[in-house]
Every structure is written in structure tokens, then in C-alpha cells.
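Thread: sanity check for a docking pose with pyridoxal-5'-phosphate

Original post by kr_44:
Hi all, I'm comparing my docking run against an independent structure prediction. Below are the sequence and the ligand SMILES. Could someone generate the full complex and paste the C-alpha cells? I mainly care about where the ligand ends up relative to the chain.
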Amino acid sequence: MILAELLALKRTDDAGLVGQLTHQLRALMAGGRIRSGAVLPSSRSLSAELDVSRNTVTHAYEQLAAEGYLRVAARRRPVVADDIGERFAKAASKTAPAPRREAVRKPSLSPWALRLSDTDWPLSYQADFRPLRPGLADAREFPHEIWARCLRRSALRRRFNEQTVINRPSLREALRDYLEVNRGVRAEADQILILPTAQAALTLIAATAIVPGDAVWTEDPGYPGAAAAFRAAGANVVGVRLDNCGMMRMREARPPKLIFTTPSHQHPTGRVMPVARRTELLTAAEPGKTWIVEDDYDGEFHYDSRPMPALQGLDREGRVLYVGTFAKAMTADIRLGYLVVPASLARTMEIAQRHLGLIASVHVQEALASFMADGHFLAHIRRTRRIYRSRRDHLAAALTRHLSEVLVAEVPPGGMQLVARLKHGTTDRDVVSRLGAAGVEVRALSSLAVERPRDHGLLLGFAAWREAEIGAAVRIMANALAGKRAVRG
Ligand SMILES: Cc1ncc(COP(=O)(O)O)c(C=O)c1O
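Reply from moderator J.T.:
Ran it for you. Here is the predicted complex with pyridoxal-5'-phosphate included:
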């Protein structure tokens, strides 16, 4: 029996995919179609067969385990509990006491929470990361001693009654100066919100901009955290295809409520959006109607020429919200991001920020302000820029040397990762699992598709990995892929 054939999920059903799957599996067990001791498919294979996210299946399995129908264990397929027949015999008999459902039933969820569990984000990465996981900065290169001194000084400084100032002026000013000089961002300090992550900025924007049903355009393939935040708010997310200049404008379409873009380095391809395309994008966004969200997540890392200034600096009409993170320029452990909003939105956004409690530690904000004011931030970026550039070149050369039969690397002018397209119509997910088994962690380009996956390739990180680690990983890849060609399914 193929379980997927017994299940029918509808994306439009109000119960949500998790709710439907849980209900249908429960009913199959109740009806005796699935018996005690039966081993169910892994969440990975059932999600592939049903074409839903792996989270959807995992949540349904967890719910049924909490209700006592399934036994689940890490890295094991779930097993239907032994006493399941008895449980249903009792439930069916009129004399049986009512099941204590209140002990096991989850409270009903909001549409927002149901939509969240239906997204593919956060991406399912293993906890122990390995070369060549993309998107990471190298924490080993971070000046921990200097940072510890800044933190210590900040923690020891006595402050009283300052809890109303959630965005620290010292950090706002340091960031304003940095962003103006280095990224061409034009803003006053009070337009800058300090947040725990860039993702917090996206959630805050979604909460303040999106009415269910609003159209949101996002790059396709693109950053899944953004699509997830806007979908959870009820947006109708439309993937916009890319050309060499990044996001292509949809000339014939009505302007959407919001456009999400990564013009400095398109995520994941690394392409830089030239100025003409930026102007076109701004023109497509009607002032007062369309919000443009510019995510400049790794804009510090340009290797081949001076960086192109931010789109925000070109905007004269207050349409652009500029998102940044310290996760790439410093390390992800810092847990700080920021959002630069148009002056007309500054008060509303700060009130929303406070309501959502997206407030970063004062100690860490003040520590970062002095780390920046004393020049350590710029020094760290200059140093890592050199290191990451040479790692990018090393990875590109190693791929050409060992894997040119199988893939074509696209060398980006900046950023922390590169895309390698697969030759020979190979399915990227197969390649990713084969490489994972061999000890190399990469991401399938198709997993970043917003609509139907059209691009097959690998996303390979270089910034976080030393040249010896990159060399070893590419040799493992070459052995794992030598002579084997998966066929696209
Ligand atoms: C395009 C893009 N935006 C934002 C982020 C997330 O930053 P944060 O960890 O601060 O939420 C990432 C992280 O990988 C990213 O790739």
C-alpha cells in the first residue's frame, strides 16, 4: 500500500495542510486501514510524495505522537502504536469513557500560525554544519577578544530609567554614518530600527504592510525567509524570474503591494542589479501604494569593484525599506539586524516593533556602537573581504579543475556563496543527498524556488571555509559524483 495514495490534501482547505494530514492519518488508523505496528514513510519521503513541505509532515507526525497514535524517534520512521486497536474499540463502544481529548488536543491555531507551518522555512539544516554550507560567515576570523572587551564595558556601564529607549541612539548614529558612507543609504538616525535579526525586520514589515490577499513580488529563486514571512501574513507571493540583471520587471502586471529584492547580490545567484534595472523597479512601484523591501544582507562583501550604492539611496519618494543584518558582516551569534524605514513610517514602525517585542539587548547594542565607533567593524570587514575573495577564487578554481564535467560555477562579484549549475539535466536534490552522505553539505538551488523549480544547481558556501577545507570538500564531491548521473525525476 502506498500511503500517499490514501491521502488527499487541498491547499485551499481552511483546516490547513497539517490539520488535514493529521485528521486523515488519524482516520486511516481508526478505520483499520493502517494497523498497529505499521511503519509509516519518513517525513522526507511522504512530503516528497504529497508535494508538501517536510515541516507539514513532521508537525502531523508529532501531533499524532502526542496523541499516542504513533511512536516516533530521531532518525527512525514512525511506527503505529501497539494498542491502537484497543483504543478504537473503546472509542467506538458507547459505554467507554470519553477520551481525555483535552489532555492531548492542541488549541486551535490562528490562520497565521497555520500558514507558518505550511512554509518550507526555516530551511532544514543539520545542527552540525559541515563544508560547504552556504550563507555563513567564518566565526573563526572574528576578533572575539576585542568584542568581549566592548561587551564588558557596555555591561558595566550603569544606566537607570533608560528602558524606553529601545533603539540606542549611539548605535543608530554609528549605523547611519556607516550606511551613508559605505552603502549610500540616506536616512536620519531615528529612521533606523535595531532588531534581533533581518528576519525580524521582514516579520515587522509583513505585519504592518500586508492585508491577506495582497500581491507580493519576490525574486525566483529567492530568499525563502522573505516569502515565508509574507505568505504567513496572507500575501499572495508571486515569484518573478531573473535575468543577468536580477529581478525582471513584470511590465504588464498591476503594481503589487510589496516587492522584495536583494539587488546588491541577488540571493542565491549573487547577481548585481545594474542602475537601469533599479530605476525601472522604482518606477514600477507606485508611491504611497507599493512598498519596496531591499535586503542588503551581505552588501559589505564586494570583491571585484566598488560596491553599487543601495537602491534606498535612489528613492526620492519614501518607497524603500532597507533591511540589513550583522549575521554576515560579523557572525550569526551576534543576533542583530536593522531596518531603515521612510521618515513617514518611522513612528508607526517603532510602535509596532515595541508591540512585537522585537527589541535587541541594550548591552549588545551599546557594545556594537563602540565596536563601530572605534573602527573595529570596518577593520574586520576589510580583513574578511580579502579572505573571502581568495576563498571564492579558490573554490571556483577547484570546481573547474575537478568537476567541470558535471557542473558550471557562476562566480559572483561578491557575497559568501556561489551557484554551480548542473550539466546533463541532473536533479539537484539527488546530488545534494549523495554529497551529504559523503560528508559535504550544500543546498539544492531548486529548494529556493518560489514557484515551480526550474533551475537545478548547487549553492556552495565559500566564506566560512578555509582553503584546505574547500579543497578537501571539492575532492570528496568529485569522487562522489564521478561517473554517476542522476536522472531528473
Ligand atoms: C537574503 C537573506 N536575508 C536575510 C538573512 C537572514 O539574516 P538574519 O539571520 O539576521 O535573519 C539571510 C540569511 O541567510 C539571507 O540569506
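Residues 376-403 form the longest helix (28 residues). Hope that helps with the comparison, let us know if your pose agrees.
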